[in-house]
């Protein structure tokens, strides 16, 4: 397994926070508020026990806590982990497979935005298994990652030296079969934004053109996967939620 010390020792994460221009830690903007609401529709957040794997600047955790979630997180970089502790967020080990049994059935929802592509291929199975262990029956796992089955996803995948593995539902499916996850959704990430009426009109036209190109591509090549640069995979742990769960 990849340990945090090994992942940091290669130097790729030096100045990572500055490179990402992460500031205003553990806060969220109006655009992020709208985005997270759309992306988590149908998933427990309010009054939920929620874990974010690789929380980075903490924008999602701040938003989820504002909705009433009891939040926990993992983060590889010490400075961000220290900021999370200062914000009162419970931390779990970044190598979640090492603590999964201790948190078995502890969470209603686990999310991971743009993180699983940073893991070596050998770590994907154990960490998906760990998520399954830590979720309650009926709980959801939401993963967002660059689309490894789309030529448009190459820009996102190769735009970060810490990205190790191109991902797609097709690549993850054999690993998901271990526990028989229910696939709830596999789609392009939500696109939101403000701006003037002109900006909104341009954004709508772009979206329409993208869907036309995607439909044409799928027809010509006889495929059904999305062409979006970034995709979201929502999984559900089979079973009925316990209405009498305790936090």
From TrEMBL:
InterPro entries, per the entry: SAM-dependent_MTases_sf (IPR029063)
Cross-referenced CDD domains: AdoMet_MTases (cd02440)
Pfam families assigned: Methyltransf_23 (PF13489)
Name used for this protein in its record: Cyclopropane-fatty-acyl-phospholipid
Upper taxonomic lineage: Bacteria, Pseudomonadati, Pseudomonadota, Alphaproteobacteria, Parvularculales
């Amino acid at each position: 397994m990849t340990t945090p010390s090994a992942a940091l020792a290669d130097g790729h994460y030096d100045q990572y926070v500055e490179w990402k221009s992460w500031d205003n830690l553990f806060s969220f903007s109006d655009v992020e508020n709208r985005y997270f609401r759309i992306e988590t529709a149908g998933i427990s957040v309010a009054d939920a026990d929620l874990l974010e794997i690789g929380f980075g600047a903490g924008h999602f955790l701040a938003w989820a806590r504002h909705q009433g979630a009891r939040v926990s997180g993992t983060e590889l970089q010490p400075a961000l982990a220290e900021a999370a502790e200062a914000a009162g967020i419970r931390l779990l080990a970044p190598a979640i497979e090492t603590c999964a049994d201790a948190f078995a059935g502890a969470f209603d929802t686990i999310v991971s935005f743009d993180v699983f592509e940073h893991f070596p291929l050998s770590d994907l199975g154990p960490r998906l298994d760990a998520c399954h262990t830590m979720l309650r029956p009926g709980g959801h796992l939401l993963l967002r990652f660059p689309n490894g089955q789309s030529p448009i996803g190459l820009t996102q995948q190769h735009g970060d030296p810490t990205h190790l593995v191109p991902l797609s539902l097709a690549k993850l499916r054999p690993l998901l079969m271990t526990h028989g996850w229910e696939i709830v959704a596999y789609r392009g990430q939500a696109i939101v934004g403000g701006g003037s009426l002109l900006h909104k009109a341009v954004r709508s036209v772009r979206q329409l053109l993208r869907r036309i190109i995607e439909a044409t591509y799928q027809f010509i090549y006889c495929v059904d996967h999305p062409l979006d640069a970034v995709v979201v995979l929502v999984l559900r742990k089979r079973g009925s939620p316990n209405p009498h769960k305790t936090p």
